[in-house]
Design a protein that fits this description.
Blueprint lengths: L1 H9 L7 H8 L3 H13 L3 E4 L5 E4 L8 H7 L18 H27 L2 H10 L3 E2 L6 E2 L10
Antiparallel strand pairs: 1-2, 3-4
Length: 152
């Protein structure tokens, strides 16, 4: 949701209200405000009150990495670890759990390393460069980002 909101903000020169963002995303404005609070605390967005107020991006898009956004959200779980709850005393389950958890930790480290390299400007460019596609949800034309365009 954070990336979705940030991409909407990236195309606007003026602030956007939580209500307007919620309409774009089909989400409750309260959920938008909660999401934005973490991004504001990290200095990625700012808010202004009053007529013409709303949310806007605080830094240059080239300075914001996916890692910055991930960290602003208190580093949500990317890869779920093996819990081994069925038979914790079983040596087979312990062995499998350790092996899987090592793989999951390695995968998460690779994802985080990749997050450092991808900037919000990359996503914004890919988003705005996409050909317009038909969206059945609101009957409007929308663009969709393409990861292939990011040269990951």
């Amino acid at each position: 949701m954070s990336l979705h909101v940030l991409l909407h903000l990236s195309g606007h020169l003026t602030p956007i209200t939580s209500e307007a963002l919620s309409e774009h995303m089909g989400a409750n404005p309260v959920l938008i405000r909660r999401t934005m609070a973490g991004l504001r605390k990290a200095g990625l967005v700012s808010s202004s009150k009053g007529h013409g107020g709303g949310w806007s991006i605080s830094r240059d898009l080239k300075e914001i990495s996916l890692l910055d956004i991930y960290q602003a959200l208190d580093e949500p779980i990317l890869v779920h670890q093996h819990r081994g709850l069925e038979m914790p005393e079983c040596l087979v389950e312990q062995t499998v759990g350790r092996t899987l958890n090592a793989i999951y930790q390695e995968a998460e480290a690779l994802i985080i390393k990749r997050f450092e390299k991808i900037k919000l400007s990359d996503l914004s460019t890919a988003f705005h460069a996409r050909p317009v596609e038909r969206s059945g949800r609101h009957g409007k034309r929308r663009s969709r980002p393409s990861l292939a365009m990011l040269e990951l």
